[in-house]
Structures are given as C-alpha cells and as structure tokens.
Design brief:
Blueprint (H helix, E strand, L loop, with lengths): L5 H28 L4 H8 L8 H10 L6 H26 L6 H27 L5 H28 L4
C-alpha cells in the first residue's frame, strides 16, 4: 500500500472510514437496544434466568416460550452473515497488502473470519444450551471489532505514515 498513488490511497482511506463509521453505528444501535454490559447481553439472549443445575436448565428450555426463537436466530444469522462476510472480504483485501509475513496475515484473517460465525453460534448456545454462553457473544463481538480496528488503523499507517522500502 505504501507504493499506491494518491487517488488509490484516498479511495482506500474513504472505504476504511466508512467501514469504521458503520461499525460504530452498529455498536451504538446495540448499546441502545440491548446494552453492552455482560448481564444485559446475557438477559437478552437467554431463555430464562439462569437455572441452578442441569435438570433445571433442561426443564427451563423445554417449557420456556422464548423471546428469541430458533427461527428468529436463523433469520438474524442469515441476514447478517452476508454483510459481515462482505466487510471481512473488503478488510481481507487490505490485510493481504500489509507488510506482514504471509503467516501473520493468514492467522489474522482466520481469527477475523471465525469471529463472525462464532457470534451467531454463541447466540444460539446462549438461548438453547445455557445462559453462560453469553460470554461467547461478547468475545466474538470484541474479536470482530478489534480485527476491524486493527485493519483500519494499520492500513492508515501503511497508507500515510510508513515510508516505502
């Protein structure tokens, strides 16, 4: 990216800024609708308050009328996987141009990509297995946001600050 001409750098900068704004708007929406505190996430995606033991957990899942059904989780995952994948694809374009070793690029892209389905799997596990899986929702969201942030800021560094070799 260091060798790109000014118009390429400006285009890349605008794409990255828009990606960052989109992510911040999404976090803002999540914070206003669900909340960002671990207990708020847990309450939103759990079937019922956390049961004491396995028997109570299974019983709670059997007779609970879920606020979030399997059908709704499937709909949310389906509706979000394609846009998240497009965000990842766009970021991957920049990542492969980083001055990092190929191994570091691959490891970073794998971590970034896995954060996407892990988020939806964690939502389903929180709803249908046990409320303690809410931690997976928090960690996958944190991983996605961190990878996006690193991609944006490292790209800015390579586009505008670092010097060509």
């Amino acid at each position: 990216m260091r060798e790109w001409n000014t118009s390429q750098k400006v285009a890349a900068t605008l794409i990255l800024v828009l990606l960052g704004i989109g992510y911040l708007v999404g976090v803002s929406k999540l914070s206003s609708s669900v909340g960002l505190a671990p207990e708020q996430v847990k309450a939103r995606y759990s079937a019922k308050p956390e049961p004491v033991g396995l028997t109570e957990s299974l019983a709670a899942l059997m007779d609970a009328e879920p606020e979030i059904s399997g059908e709704k989780l499937t709909h949310v995952a389906h509706a979000h996987m394609i846009p998240y994948t497009l965000v990842f694809a766009l970021c991957a374009f920049f990542i492969v141009h980083f001055g990092w070793s190929p191994r570091a690029q691959v490891l970073f892209m794998v971590a970034f990509a896995l954060s996407i389905p892990f988020d939806f799997l964690s939502m389903a596990a929180t709803r249908f297995i046990h409320p303690s899986f809410y931690v997976g929702i928090l960690l996958s969201g944190l991983a996605f946001g961190a990878c996006l942030g690193i991609t944006i800021f490292w790209s800015f560094y390579e586009l505008w600050i670092s010097k060509p070799d």
